[in-house]
Write a structure and sequence with these properties.
Layout: H1 2-7, H2 29-39, E1 47-49, E2 61-64, E3 73-79, E4 82-89, E5 93-96, E6 105-107
Antiparallel strand pairs: 1-5, 2-3, 2-6, 3-4, 4-5
Length: 109
C-alpha cells in the first residue's frame, strides 16, 4: 500500500488478493515469471482464464522442455479440445498456452 501511495496517480498499481486470508497474495518469483513468459510469448494467442477451479480436476503438473516456452511449469488442461499448459496464480487468475505437443512436456511432482 505504501508503494501505491508513493506512486500516486502516475502509475496503475493492482493488488492480487488472497481469497483465503483476504490479504495481498504472495507470489513466488518462478510462478510469476512463468505467467509473464506465457502471457508475452507471442506464440499464438495466450488464453486468459477467468474461472480456474473448474479446470483443476484431475490435471497433472508439467514442465515444458523444448521450444520458446522451455522451463515453464504449469498444469496440463484441455481447453477447446486442445492440451494446453495453464499457469495459475492465486485469486483465480490464469493464462494458458496454445496447444503443446506431448513430447515437448515432462510430468513433474
Amino acid at each position: 500500500m505504501e508503494l501505491k501511495d508513493q506512486l500516486g496517480s502516475r502509475f496503475s498499481v493492482n493488488i492480487l488478493w488472497d481469497g483465503v486470508t483476504f490479504s495481498p497474495a504472495r507470489i513466488g518469483d518462478k510462478p510469476m515469471q512463468d505467467f509473464i513468459t506465457v502471457a508475452e510469448s507471442g506464440e499464438g494467442t495466450p488464453l486468459y482464464l477467468e474461472t480456474v477451479s473448474t479446470l483443476l480436476k484431475d490435471c497433472r503438473k508439467v514442465r515444458i522442455i523444448s521450444g520458446r516456452l522451455s522451463g515453464v511449469e504449469g498444469r496440463l488442461v484441455r481447453i477447446r479440445k486442445a492440451r494446453r499448459v495453464m499457469v495459475d496464480l492465486p485469486g483465480d487468475l490464469a493464462v494458458a498456452t496454445e496447444y503443446i505437443r506431448p513430447e515437448c512436456m515432462e510430468e513433474i511432482g
